[in-house]
Amino acid sequence: MERISKTNYYLDIAQTVASRSTCLRRMYGAIIVKNDVIVSTGYCGAPRGRQNCSDMGYCLREKMNIPRGERYEMCRSVHSEANAIIAAPRELMLGATMYQACIDVSTGGLAVDIDSCQMCKKLVINSGIETVIYRNTPDTFRIAQVSDWIADDDSLGKIGY
């Protein structure tokens, strides 16, 4: 039996975390890892104490025909990156890696070519996380260096989610 790579091991965990998401469009999961230790996890869901879209049975952005990548202030959910960052102490995020996976609710399969939205990229930059790894398929992924986001201000305007 061939041993799974460390990257895919962490991406599998991020994908499992994504299955807790309450978003009716895309179920994102994120984990933050430093020195081979999981520091924090996060998935998309409404702020504590508020109803989730899955509980209400509709997505407000979808109901208003808001396209993907626009008007995130209308989203009920706190994104997976934000939830993982909120739950982690800053000193454990400095130099860490975030792993992300996304399940497309309409197909039940993995969403490919995912990216963090502009708001979450800013949070990741300020958290001190060094690298973000996005799952494309069960075996492939894309690596983003946060330093590239800092160097290229245009990347903060790129459409994600």
Largest sheet: 5 strands, mixed
Q: Averaged pLDDT, please?
A: 91
Helix-strand string: HEEHHHHEHEEH
Share of residues in strands: 15-25%
Q: Give the number of helices.
A: 7
Tertiary shape:
globular
Measured distance between first and last alpha carbons? 36 Å
Structural class: alpha+beta
Contiguous low-pLDDT stretches (5 residues minimum) are: none
Helix content bin:
25-40%
User: Which strand order does the major sheet show?
Assistant: 2-1-3-4-5
How many β strands by DSSP? 5
What is the CA-based Rg, rounded? 15 Å
Walk me through this protein's architecture.
The chain has 161 residues and is an alpha+beta fold. The protein is built from 7 helices and 5 strands. The protein has helices at 6-18, 53-56, 60-63, 80-86, 90-93, 118-127, 146-151, and strands at residues 26-34, 37-43, 97-104, 131-135, 141-145. Strands 2-1-3-4-5 form a 5-stranded mixed beta sheet. Helix 6 (118-127) links the parallel strand 3 (97-104) and strand 4.
